[in-house]
Amino acid sequence: MAQRLALQRLLSLPARGPLASHSRAFGTSAGRRSTFNVQDGSDFQDRVVNSPKPVVVDFHAQWCGPCKILGPRLEKLVSKLEGKVLMAKVDIDDHTDLAIEYEVSAVPTVLAMKNGDVVDKFVGVKDEDQLEAFLKKLIGA
Amino acid sequence: MGSTLRKSQAVRQAPGGAPPERRSPAGGFFSGLTSSEQNWQFCLYQQEMLLPRLTLYWSGNAFILAPAVMITGLFAELAELNRLVGNHPQLFFSWVSFLLGGAPKLREGQREAAAETSQPVVSVRKKQIGDHERTLKAHKEEDNPQKTMEVNGLTPVPDSYDYDLIVIGGGSGGLAAAKEAAKYEKKVMVLDFVKPTPQGSSWGLGGTCVNVGCIPKKLMHQAALLGQALQDSRKFGWQFTEEVEHNWMTMTESVQNYIGSLNWGYRVALRDKKVTYENAYGEFVGPHTIKATNKKGIEKLYTAERFIIATGERPRYLGIPGDKEYCISSDDLFSLPYCPGKTLVVGASYVALECAGFLAGLGLDVTVMVRSILLRGFDQDMANRIGEYMKEHGVNFIREFVPVKIERVEEGTPGVLKVTAKSTAGDQMIEGEYNTVLLAIGRDPCTRKIGLDKVGVNINEKTGKIPVNDVEQTNVPYIYAIGDILQDKLELTPVAIQAGRLLVQRLYAGATTKCDYVNVPTTVFTPLEYGACGYAEETAMEKFGEENIEVYHSHFWPLEWTVPSRDNNKCYAKIICNIQDNERVIGFHVLGPNAGEVTQGFAAAIKCGLTKEQLDNTVGIHPVCAELALKTVTLVGRQVKTGIATGIDLPLMSGLSGYGHSPALAGVFEEESVKEKSLWPFCCVVSLPKATWPLSNPTRTKRPVADLPRLSPPGASRSDGGKEYPELEAIHKDHQGPTPGPAQNSPKSGTRVEFKGFSLSHTINLI
Question: Which chain regions cross the lipid bilayer (chain A) (predicted)?
């Protein structure tokens, strides 16, 4: 149902839609996109697990209010790092198997992944300072 | 030896005349021997003769034994032969061959039967199919190779199952049962699949209640109530200059977001409890075996020791042109991506009235098309009151009409639809244009396409419901059923949950408690909420007899509604007591705000066997509506004659508002002679809003419903002879609800005096 509503919104919006705009707004300067939406399991495997750079995985849902706050905030900070960290967004309704695999029970859940391993994780909205510290730890460690 | 004997034969002449030992006469075997000598000789003789005797004995027996052995051997041979070749005709022929040619012939026959031309020789279920060639032939020729597995037409049951329990249906009942079973370390699977509606709506895990039932309904009902509260708030001092409007999309999005979180929550809960969940359509294909088809069409087979069917129901369609293409149902309403606009609601079930109620509360133009009575199965007096309230709050009712055709006049979301309807009491036809047509004419169980015939589960062919015994078991011992699909049981979420949990506890935890379907409380969330527990008035009268029933009732005005001067004398409470059983409360009905909250506590009390006396002894909480339900009042004295007690409304200020009973009024509740007490000082009859002017007839006869404007002529006979929707008969089997009650009119009871409760402040205004 959430999908149906989202579809309606997508169609009714004159612009390209919220999801597309996110990935376009950030990374256009560098020509690379540091934030992307995971398409399926193999896409996750390629771009997250096998990624040479550390990846922040944001598990979110359409029906989740706090996700809508955390998402943009995290993206902003990730883009500031100019490619040192990538960010993957996973909609848990679309990719339930991935969510179950990584034991996501509440959203938003953010995983920090390096070389295919989960090195850090948090659940719920955090403010910018906490997010910065989280990202610094991921790059530094 | 003889000489020895002989020597002893020399008889010693015993001195003194001892008698000599007797000797046997000469000749014969024992000749000339004394008796002791004879005994000795006989023993010796036996010894000698032992071996010859045994030989004789056994050789005699051999004559009997040998044939017996032979015959036993023969039987064994024949049995072997039978086993090798199967079926009965062979046995006969094998006898014949034995009789004709003896054992050698038999052996020849055996050899032929068992002769194979190639290896391996395959046996299936102790029956020999044959050699390699014959086996392949059997497999290819059979349409269903499974048949070779069948014994007496039944496929054998695997000895170990994939799961202990498979639950078909992930709704209220199914999930509760699955989670409970997982607690007892059982291997459980839940199959849940939603077939999209004709309009394309679908939803996630959780069933009807969570997705398209109780949850979104209550949230939207709350949205409507808030609208009303906003209007009231001005009187309470809130100031806002703009007009307040409602945005359908905002509300729907919020509701759907919450439902999404519930769907996810259920998935996590199942995962945590290690219950396997498959989003797949479950169908029985054989004993203990189910086929699960997911949305990509991939099929998997699973077996389980036990099954619970909890597939629930889906809305029924009218079966008229245009219904599936243009109409929506409750399955679509709660996720409708556009505001429904001017809506026609077809039906008079609680689904219809609740939806009509909140749509009207949100400011939409709503019409309800009713075929006959409102809320079939509920207390009809209360149902009529609900209808009245809705009518006064802007819901239009079209009584005794059914739609016959739906056409689209204009495209769009929502577009414009033209509805043609026919009267049930004549030939009159009417037309109307609406943006949306919402069908709420009933729900049908999802039991016809899940392969129940393959496992032999009986269903009621007409309604599709499954009859079960009092432990929720179907006619097939390892298949159980719970929830809305049960025949003659209540269609409520808490009932399904309770039944599911208790069933699993009985199966796996050795419990014996059965689900109690008696005195289950329920609430209808119409704009004026209605809570009930126990018997309806007409049902109680039918069951216990009119003279054994006492009905206590009162109107009340919630304090919160006084300031905005809203709807006085609409709220109503009624308690039905069984006089023969110590005036036990057997029915509780309340119409007013938060009726569900009020009813829940009373339901517990009724379960404990509440009597009227106990109710009277309970002190009320003030100022709340529930205390007014508590202090319901009845007719004062059954011997009331014509006069004062009838035909007036008596306000009871202090009594019902809880500031203590006034002694004078206390006398009012005495048995007799109401008219002797001067009640006139307490009557502010003239300034009271004229709500109910009851009975002119004081004797204990049927109460004419002079006070309630009739929604349809009482006792109107329908021209179609009471048939159900004739259009539906060809397509749907008619669903008969619980007892409609002896009359569609008001309940029959003794005379009553209506008492109203007012708050003190109101009284002060009046005095």
Answer: none
User: Exposed (0-12), middle (13-18) or buried (19+): which is B538, by Cβ within 10 Å?
Assistant: buried
Cβ–Cβ below 8 Å for A96 and B267: yes
Q: Given CB atoms, is A115 within the 8 Å cutoff of chain B?
A: no
Q: Are A55 and A88 in contact (CB under 8 A)?
A: yes
* Beta pairing, strands B163-168 & B299-309: parallel
Q: Is B264–A107 a contact, with Cβ atoms under 8 angstroms apart?
A: yes
Q: Has residue A114 been placed in a domain?
A: yes
DSSP character at residue A124: S
Render pLDDT for B82-104 as a digit per residue (tens, 0 to 9): 665 555 455 556 566 666 666 66
Residue A131 is part of a domain; what is its CATH number?
3.40.30.10
- With contacts defined as CB-CB under 8 Å, which chain A residues touch B274? none
Query: Is residue B622 among the annotated active site residues?
Result: yes
Cβ(B145)–Cβ(B154) under 8 Å? no
Q: Indicate whether A102 belongs to any domain.
A: yes
Do the interacting molecules here have an ipTM over 0.95? no
Query: Max Cα separation, chain B?
Result: 160
A80 falls within a domain: yes
Two tokens, residue B207 = 């069933």
pLDDT digit string (tens) for A79-96?
A: 988 888 999 999 998 898
Instruction: Decide if pLDDT at B677 tops 60.
Output: no
Structural domain total, chain A? 1
Measured in angstroms, the CA of A130 and the nearest CA of chain B are apart by: 26
The three-state (H, E, C) secondary structure of B251-292, written as one string: HHHHHHHHHHHHHHHHHHHHHHCCCEEECEEEEEEECCEEEE
Q: Which of B589, B622, B732, B762 is catalytic?
A: B622
Q: Which domain does A101 fall in, by range? A: 35-139
Considering only CB atoms, which chain A residues are within 8 Å of B278?
A: none
Domains annotated on chain B, with CATH? 52-82+112-141 (no CATH), 163-315+445-509 (3.50.50.60), 328-441 (3.50.50.60), 528-630 (3.30.390.30)
A13 in B contact zone (CB under 8 Å): no
Residues of chain A positioned with their CB less than 8 A from the CB of B252: 5
What is the pLDDT at residue B568?
85
B335 Cβ under 8 Å from any chain A Cβ: yes
The answer to the question of residue A6 being in a domain is: no
Say whether A110 sits in a helix, a strand or coil: strand
Is A102 near chain B, with CB under 8 Å? no
